[in-house]
Design brief:
One of its GO terms (molecular function) is transaminase activity. Keywords: Aminotransferase, Pyridoxal phosphate, Transferase. Pfam families: Aminotran_5. Strand 6 (193-197), helix 8 (209-212) and strand 7 (216-220) form a beta-alpha-beta unit. Helix 2 (37-49) packs antiparallel against helix 11 and helix 11 packs across helix 12. The chain has 15 helices and 13 strands. The longest helix has 28 residues, at 292-319. By secondary structure, it is of the alpha/beta class. It has 2 domains: 6-34 and 292-402, Alpha-Beta Complex (Aspartate Aminotransferase, domain 1), CATH 3.90.1150; 43-275, Type I PLP-dependent aspartate aminotransferase-like (Major domain) (Aspartate Aminotransferase, domain 2, 3-Layer(aba) Sandwich), CATH 3.40.640. The strands form 3 sheets. It has a 7-stranded mixed beta sheet with strand order 2-8-7-6-5-3-4, sandwiched between helices. A 4-stranded antiparallel beta sheet has the order 9-10-13-12, covered by helices on one side. Strands 1-11 form a two-stranded parallel ribbon.
Amino acid sequence: MTTLDIEFVRSQFPAFAEPSLKGQAFFENAGGSYTCKPVLDRLMRFYTQRKVQPYAPYEASTLGGAEMDEARARLAAMMGVETDELSFGPSTTQNTYVLAQAFRQFLSPGDAIIVTNQDHEANTGPWRRLADAGIEVREWQLDPQTGHLDPGDLEKLLDDKVRLVCFPHCSNVVGEINPVAEVSAMAHAIGAFVCVDGVSYAPHGLPNVAELGPDIYLFSSYKTYGPHQGVMVIRRSLGDLLPNQAHFFNADTLYKRFTPAGPDHAQVAASAGMADYVDILCDHHGGPTQGAAERAAFVHDLMRAHEVKLLQPLLDMLKARNDVRLLGPDEAENRAPTVAVHLNRPAEPVAAQLAEYGIMAGGGDFYAVRALQAQGIDPEDGVLRLSFTHYTSEQEMAQLMDALEKVL
């Protein structure tokens, strides 16, 4: 089966059977997705059967610790990295902040880093603060008309002073999928490390980090059908170099080095349900029977094909209007289904109007203040953001477009 079975997909999400949500179409997935049943099942089991300190020599504790280990092992395998290269933290924002503190100790005055103005603030603000320690901060700027990040512009910023390049896999308001493999290769060629914010990409299919090549890859499990955690891949070649940020006795354990606080046992364990869900989709659609990365890639492609099919009519509708501005590409192939629209008026009241038609969407700056300002948009007005993922149906897209016609 090469076409996503949308009814089967939706059966894996209890929200679609929830009476209080009946008739409402969810289009604020970029802020947080619905949670799949395997995650909820594991979370309930942990809280009812295994809510004890893990890794002790009694059954409930041993089983709880095993589930936490399972989550790291299976998600890491699906992303093409080693188990101890993947760790969990309370959020991607917090994980990024901790990494920035590690780099603050690792870098020397006169070293340079590169950030973008296309990012969510979580992957740009902490890095920019390194300027306080004498680190030169260079900005890879987006095109003010298209929102595009041109690798040619990055090349002009690269030299032997640059130690780190930080950019998003895709922006949470522009939506364009950036060429991670190409940029990683460019940075590595001059000896720099690469940090990629994958928060807006991972919900549309887990990436193979080994193939893409960054040294750090960050995303949020609560936007990827899971519990409220930040997932962080740090490749060993970098992780062993950076100063330990955790308790001194955890310094020799890679997946603990950059998580100063203790893990949320239940939520880490429940994250294995994200891997369960990928496997369930793979098996239902007749995907590969072996190879975690191969199975995840199959599901990734199923999700993306469905999203692209649903996204293009919405883009066509918006670009045909002369009273709104669509941010980012108007072709679905190279963008995530996160669609920001500048309305030339405050966006939040329009989101409230859409709610009257059963559309759950948002208006505002979405912590992408720099990206909006760089494109000439007043953050006070913000943008209307319409974001969906693979569990969205054609009927919901029709409901959205009908509501937009009435409201706009």
